[in-house]
Amino acid sequence: MKQWIGLDIGGTGIKGALVDQDGIMSEPVAVPTPALEGRERILEAAAGLIGQLEQQASSHDIAGIGIGTAGRVDRQTGSIVYATDNMPGWTGTGIRQEIGKLFPYRISVENDVNAAAWGEAWLGAGRDAHSFVLAALGTGIGGAFVYEGRVLPGLRGGLGEIGHLIMDREGSLCTCGQRGCWETLCSGTALSRIARETHADWSSRFLVQAYTEGHPDALQAMDLYLSDLARGLISVQQAYDPEVIVLGGGVSDGYPLWSKDLQDKISQFSVVPVRLAKAELGNRAGIMGAVKWAMTDTTA
């Protein structure tokens, strides 16, 4: 049976696995991302994982390599159009070209959040949806729009940059250079900041736990957080009109604990219905989706 090598290159780690045409995935392997050491070292680490997986698949035909990566991606060339300073020098990296020098397979490259959306559309929370937006609430807020099973990239690969919707024109400076972006209010980084501002020794996880236990300070902090989260989700619904918004990323782990309050706020603020669902694939989504893109990609 044919298998694909799937890779998920993030700012802190690189994960990889073998995936077959039915979505059956091998045990993932992982290495830290040498992000501060430059593009050559990142590519070297990625190639090392690919080589390891290639050996594991010795009895199978490898149909191709799918790579999901942090940064805005040009699908046609498999290169990085733009990446933040979390990965210095990653902008302009020709991933398909460089990895293609080392391995004789078709190579498809996609943005990491888009890759997660491909995965959720294939075998996750979006598999039965005609259209959905993936809102990835992590270090920042990433997004992807899926229509009829395909992730739409936009003109420059940035169609789903929902984390940079401006919610407060006089708000905090964002890493993108704008002020008051949604991710400055509702990302995992923002939730950690809110926790520390509530009590200096609180983590975001402790804040959510205290909120479930009815701690007054936690209730007040989470009320503000969930209000901003609700308004952002309403804006996403109004802009994209999806059948469902799928919540992913580390913050979504707490969704079962605060989903009712969030839905109540959406009902209070919104003139249109907003249907939410939690992502189902967890940390497998990026690898699975990179492979699904490799199966679909006609440019490689």
UniProtKB/TrEMBL annotation:
UniProt-listed PROSITE patterns: ROK
Gene3D superfamilies given in the database record: 3.30.420.40
Source organism, top-level taxon: Bacteria
Family label: Belongs to the ROK (NagC/XylR) family.
Name of the protein in its database record: ROK family protein
Natural source organism: Paenibacillus lemnae
